[in-house]
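Progress note, sequence design subtask.
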């Protein structure tokens, strides 16, 4: 695979032509047999929407969060009678006319700083691996191209906010869908799976003393000095990755991972391991990390995570409550530190759940209509955007494709969503020609 990457300057004329084409493609969209007028996401030709956020905290709900049981509640159903509908009662929020599930009281009180995008959809088969790839790269698996994740795209386009910090940190298990694809190693992630242990690969084994580490670094410098220069991007990226890892393995950056530096009271407010991951994400924002993904596919709360087939749904409320506690605390914490307008919080999942109950009382998969959430980031929040039918099964207004959702995130953090990236000499539209939700930038 050719990993060369270079930037090009798009002329105003080219930009206008590209955006005009994208706008024309949005008019007359059809979803589920319903025709929609020109999208409210379209904006005047030649005007790129651009927010003022500097960081993204992306919370990943692996398994498939049920929108009808969280941020898009409908009339209550009854699994014992197989009556479709929400599993829980709905409650009012800080935004008039917007309701959420009864297990989200913390976020309900601050929906004026949140937008539940209720009309996200994709055409990918409702299977976890394919849909997870779609919701990380914005593309379907296919062909010979390994597409970069959204985290890698933002890391590539904006770099770290502070010199000496990694641009992209994953708090969860590594996976190719989170990776840099054709952008190369420089746009990859640093990862950790346990907030008590710090990043994988940055802590020296006990047998590697400081003197021994110094000798190794001196030997590496000798090898570099004696080697011929190279134009191979892969080798240069690898050298850059080594240099950055040596910087990051020092005590200065690693202090960001020491949660014991926070007060016990604050740590308790965030809650368990997932809450500690959210607290760590705030510390990483302060340290200059541009994009942080926080995984919340923790199965031990209900035995199934968000994939609530059959009996897994019985303890689904525990996941929802943990999400509410951690995210509400994160929003308040960022606001107290005057970081909320500079930090876009994103909650995504691979698909939603249908209103019908399966034979065990749980729910299946649904990618044609589900909810993703945005908070903070300096956006003009409205509580909810888009609308589904009476059972959250079909979109009835303001559909948002995955490229549109990605374009909204890119715009919020100052990334040009209209440009092309390049896999060798092959142009790849950065968000697959998505258009941001213009209402959030008004």
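Output:
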């Amino acid at each position: 695979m050719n990993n060369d990457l270079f930037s090009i300057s798009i002329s105003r004329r080219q930009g206008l032509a590209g955006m005009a084409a994208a706008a024309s493609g949005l008019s007359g969209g059809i979803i589920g047999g319903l025709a929609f007028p020109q999208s409210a996401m379209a904006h005047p030709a030649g005007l790129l929407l651009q927010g003022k956020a500097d960081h993204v905290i992306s919370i990943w709900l692996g398994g498939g969060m049920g929108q009808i049981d969280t941020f898009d509640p409908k009339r209550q159903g009854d699994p014992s009678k197989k009556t479709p509908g929400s599993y829980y009662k709905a409650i009012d929020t800080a935004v008039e006319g917007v309701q959420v599930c009864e297990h989200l009281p913390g976020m309900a009180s601050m929906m004026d700083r949140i937008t539940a995008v209720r009309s996200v959809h994709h055409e990918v088969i409702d299977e976890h691996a394919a849909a997870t790839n779609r919701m990380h790269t914005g593309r379907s698996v296919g062909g010979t191209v390994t597409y970069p994740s959204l985290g890698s795209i933002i890391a590539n386009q904006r770099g770290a906010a502070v010199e000496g910090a990694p641009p992209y940190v994953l708090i969860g298990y590594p996976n190719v869908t989170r990776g840099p694809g054709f952008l190369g190693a420089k746009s990859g992630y640093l990862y950790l799976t346990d907030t008590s242990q710090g990043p994988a690969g940055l802590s020296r084994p006990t047998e590697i003393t400081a003197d021994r580490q110094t000798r190794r670094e001196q030997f590496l410098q000798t090898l570099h000095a004696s080697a011929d220069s190279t134009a191979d991007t892969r080798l240069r990226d690898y050298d850059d990755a080594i240099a950055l890892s040596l910087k990051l393995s020092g005590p200065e950056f690693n202090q960001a991972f020491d949660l014991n530096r926070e007060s016990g009271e604050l740590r308790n407010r965030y809650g368990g391991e997932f809450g500690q991951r959210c607290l760590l994400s705030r510390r990483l924002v302060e340290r200059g990390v541009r994009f942080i993904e926080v995984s919340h596919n923790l199965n031990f709360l209900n035995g199934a995570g968000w994939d609530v087939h059959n009996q897994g749904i019985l303890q689904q409320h525990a996941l929802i409550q943990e999400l509410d506690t951690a995210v509400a605390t994160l929003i308040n914490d960022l606001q107290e530190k005057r970081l909320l307008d500079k930090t876009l919080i994103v909650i995504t999942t691979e698909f939603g759940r249908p209103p019908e109950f399966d034979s065990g009382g749980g729910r299946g998969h649904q990618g044609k209509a589900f909810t993703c959430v945005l908070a903070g980031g300096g956006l003009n929040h409205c509580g909810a955007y888009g609308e589904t039918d009476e059972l959250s099964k079909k979109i009835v207004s303001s559909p948002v494709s995955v490229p549109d959702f990605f374009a909204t995130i890119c715009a919020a953090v100052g990334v040009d969503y209209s440009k092309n990236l390049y896999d060798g000499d092959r142009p790849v539209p950065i968000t697959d020609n998505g258009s941001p939700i213009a209402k959030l930038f008004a």
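The longest strand covers residues 114-121. Work on this subtask will continue into the next period as scheduled.
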